[in-house]
Amino acid sequence: MADSETIRAIKHIGAIIDRANKLESRMAYLIDLHIGASGVGRDFLRTKVLHSSIVSYGAKIKLISAIDTAIGKGTVDIELLHKIGKIRNSFAHGLLENSLRPQRDSESGVANTDIVIETLRNDLSIRETNRLEAVDTFREGSSILFTQLEELEKKIVEANDA
Question: Please, which residues bridge with residue 48 across strands?
Fold first, then answer.
């Protein structure tokens, strides 16, 4: 892999992991807001219970789904949360050296190297996706989710004030 391509790939990996961490942090905040603990209990909830080493991304999705069902009435696209998580995991755990796929342009016959990420489907088969397409999907999907989580926050605050 060319040095400039390696640097680009690493930048994509870093940006996706950072944004996924922000998304997970946002979910933890909403869970905390919904539970409504105060004082020492709130600090314990935020810093210990909802820490990513204790409550995983997938578990936070389940909690957000339950809150959304009860209060948001379908505000958050839970399937999109799962999809974004799979893309994040593909970038975080995939090896760059294993992601190169030599291809030939069907019209020109010119050889090039496509960089793919692998995601695990629900049926446990592997799906290969072009890395740049996955980056775009992640960016678009995470933007949608941040907006949806903002809407859920408003509904949680309204429910807490009622």
Answer: none
